[in-house]
Amino acid sequence: MTERATMAEIAEAAGVSLATVSKVWNGRSDVSDRTRQRVEEMLRLHGYRGRRHWNTEPAGTIDVIFTEIDCAWEGEHLRGIEAAGHEAGVRVVVSSLDRGDTARRQLLQRLRAGRTDGAILATMSAAGPLVAALNRLSVPLVALDPVTRPAGDLLSVDAANFDGARAATAHLLRLGHRRIGLVAGLDELLCSRSRLDGFLAAHDEAGVAPDPRLIEHGEFDFPSGVVAGGRLLDRSSPPTAVFAMSDFMAIGVYEAARLRGLSVPDQLSVVGFDDLPGSRWASPPLTTVRQPLREMGALAVRTALGLADGGVLGTELVVRESTAPL
């Protein structure tokens, strides 16, 4: 074990749970003296310092910063964040920056006046003025599902976007589809590029050339899925299946098909990405790639507290009733 030991390794060495190590590290009183002494001995023995370097006293607080909170996607992250915060004995403070510079100023003023054990940058750029300001305050940061590739030593938590898109596309190819449309996200987003690479890789592995004319772009919401899906279905040679890079856009493709008198999956197979709670209640229930959104939120909390070192969590194809053989 080295100075880079995580709390998980300290817990194993001391023979206690992660939550117990976190309580000792954060100065909680609800730990027996004997257990506290054993954990503190392990912390000293292995030179554990965590990443809470900006303040020697624990705050018992984690800040979660969203660009905006407007759908079930963020809600799933928050469920995991809240559960992990409760387990670790810290409270969670959530901020949304959809009010622009005012929200940013208020957030920074609060952090300067008080303390936090770390900040989770949720679904936002891992660079920019806010990140620079937080770094100047020496706030430990972790990027949760960052929209750009994190720079330097910033730890991040992400999903296996490439693998998920490859699995979704391979599923459609195994069903016999050869003209597969893609409703992609914005090119500048890290997840969009990874999912596009997975889409192309599945075609390459199957020896099928994708048609670049069957790629449209949306903004991860229902209206853009309707528009992009309509453009694909109005082609002179339309696709027989569509992979949409989000569940919302996939449901938009449903609507585009309905407006044109097409039945899913009899005349058009559709696959989404996310597996949000409503996907199983769509008509028909949506085949989609499950992102472990709650697990990602929980791992982000543990990473901010020094319990873990971030990482990429696996995705899983969930086959329901929106796909069928060609």
What are the main properties of this structure?
alpha/beta, 6-stranded parallel sheet, 326 residues, Rossmann fold, 6-stranded mixed sheet, 11 helices, single chain
From the N-terminal CA to the C-terminal CA, the straight-line distance is 55 Å
In CATH terms, what is the architecture of the domain at 161-292?
Answer: 3-Layer(aba) Sandwich
Tally the helices: 11
CATH superfamily descriptor of the domain at 161-292: Response regulator
- What does the overall shape look like? elongated
- Unreliable runs, pLDDT <50, ≥5 residues? 51-56
Beta fraction of the residues?
A: 15-25%
The class by helix and strand makeup works out as alpha/beta
Secondary-structure element order, N to C = HHHEHEHEHEEHEHEHEHEEHEE
Helix content: 40-55%
- Calculate Rg over CA atoms: 22 Å
Estimate the mean pLDDT confidence.
86
Q: How many strands, what sense, and barrel or not for the largest sheet? A: 6 strands, parallel
* Order of strands across the main sheet: 2-1-3-4-5-11
